[in-house]
Design a protein that fits this description.
It is a single chain. The chain is α/β, with parallel strands linked by helices. The protein folds into 2 domains: about 15-45 and about 315-425, Aspartate Aminotransferase, domain 1 (Alpha-Beta Complex); about 60-315, Aspartate Aminotransferase, domain 2, CATH 3.40.640. The protein is built from 14 helices and 17 strands. Strand 8, helix 8 and strand 9 (about 240-245) form a beta-alpha-beta unit. Helix 3 (about 80-100) packs across helix 10 (about 300-315) and helix 12 (about 365-375) packs across helix 14. The two termini are about 40 Å apart.
Length: about 425
């Protein structure tokens, strides 16, 4: 089984789980100031990590230091502060490159997040390459940000958006996917990990299948990057996108990875300063990669903060994080599965660390409200994945999502709080 894959939980019971040796979660928690908070008079149990993660002190301090001692615009000055800020910003790009094993730093485009990255590919590559009758293939478990941009570009080009189905357990039906992948498919755009189900898709196989049919492959890695090692060259994907705020970095920053030959051939997404070499009223010459796609003053502090977040993760070790989080997921899954009236939504063989669930006769918003009274933060609703909810016949779910700073005791607190919800409504 490859790294990052979690086998389906067994009914063995949480007490058989052995904690990861030398993984000092209490020491890690001290790096996250917000985790010492109380909510409604009770210790905060933060289980909304799939929506956004909390930030460690090194990230917070890096951002504060930038604004206090390093603040300047980049790429546009010869003074010391500008050169320092430029060096810090470009060093962060190299950190992203190394984190996902891209071939070169110029293959990393800084964006506001995965949503902007997907829109960039849709509007730049899509408008330049799609023709009437061409097809884009996604899955039925996509986040809205990997659906709507393709719908927009399909309306503009005459291309067709198709969605491969998934099973009742939340597993992609690969036979149907293969059937829908035809010579008309120009791009396959799939989530690495479903934000609503936790499903880990076999993206290596998907990329290979796309290439065999002459199509490109874009992977939405928002829910994968915080939980498992990602190697874009091993995957051989053409594009990979993720958001910084879900990987313990700041909001408003993210990255688009693209193979250099593809990015070179794509027209700019936005025009303005810094994405040009020269401008006249007769002609503009565009800048080289990656700056061709980074118009205007970027989120400098955000990029530097993202670099600090990736440093922090690498210091802990992604494989150790993955192993520990898998134990949390298994512990909580086993216990929740034993509660009468509770149904887990999404039970594929391979999952990342989130659990979506419903309780018979109780609206997810009511579940979230009562859990909040217990100090437990979860997410309720459709999770920007309305087609998933429609496919599974539920209006919404409650979703608890774990990070490496969560504890076994917090997983147990979630279980106790779910039982309390049932008691309250009964």
């Amino acid at each position: 089984m490859s790294a990052g894959l979690t086998p389906a939980a067994t009914p063995s019971g949480a007490d058989r789980i052995v904690p990861v040796r030398s993984f000092d979660v209490e020491a890690i928690r001290r790096d996250f100031p917000i985790l010492a908070s109380t909510v409604n008079g009770k210790p905060l149990v933060y289980l909304d990590n799939a929506a956004t993660s909390q930030k460690p002190r090194p990230v917070i301090e890096t951002i504060m230091r930038y604004y206090a001692a390093e603040n300047a615009n980049i790429h546009r000055g010869v003074h010391w502060l500008s050169e320092l800020a430029t060096a810090k910003h470009e060093a962060a790009r190299v950190k992203v490159q190394h984190f996902i094993n891209a071939a070169a730093a110029r293959e990393i485009i800084f964006v506001r997040g995965a949503t902007e990255a997907i829109n960039l590919v849709a509007q730049s590559w899509g408008r330049a390459n799609l023709r009437p009758g061409d097809e884009i293939l996604v899955t039925g478990m996509e986040h809205h940000s990997n659906i709507v941009p393709w719908q927009i570009v399909c309306e503009a080009t005459g291309a067709i958006l198709r969605a491969a189905p998934f099973s009742d357990r939340g597993q992609l039906l690969l036979g149907e996917f293969d059937r829908m992948l035809t010579g008309k498919t120009r791009l396959v755009a799939v989530t690495h990990v479903s934000n609503a189900l936790g499903t880990i898709n076999p993206v290596h196989r998907i990329v290979q299948a796309a290439h065999d049919r002459g199509a490109l492959a874009l992977i939405d890695g928002c829910q994968a990057i915080p939980h498992m090692p990602v190697d874009v060259r091993e995957l051989d994907c053409d594009f990979y996108v993720f958001s910084g705020h879900k990987v313990f970095g700041p909001t408003g920053i993210g990255a688009l990875y693209g193979k250099e030959k593809l990015l070179d051939a794509m027209p700019p997404y936005q025009g303005g300063g810094d994405m040009i070499k020269s401008v006249s009223f007769e002609k503009t010459t565009y800048n080289d990669l990656p700056y061709k796609f980074e118009a205007g003053t970027p989120h400098i502090a955000g990029a530097i903060g993202l670099g600090a977040a990736l440093d922090y993760i690498q210091d802990i070790g992604m494989r150790r994080i993955n192993e520990y989080e898998n134990q949390l997921l298994t512990r909580a899954t086993n216990a929740i599965s034993e509660i009468p009236g509770v149904r887990i939504i999404g039970t594929p063989p391979c999952k990342a660390s989130l659990i979506s669930f419903v309780i018979d006769g109780i609206h997810p918003h009511d579940i979230g409200t009562i859990l909040d009274q217990e100090g437990i933060a979860i997410r309720t609703g459709h999770h920007c994945a309305q087609p998933v909810m429609e496919r599974l016949g539920v209006p919404a779910t409650a979703r608890a999502s774990f990070a490496f700073y969560n504890t076994h005791q917090e997983a147990d607190a979630l279980v106790r709080a779910i039982r309390k919800v049932i008691e309250v409504f009964n």
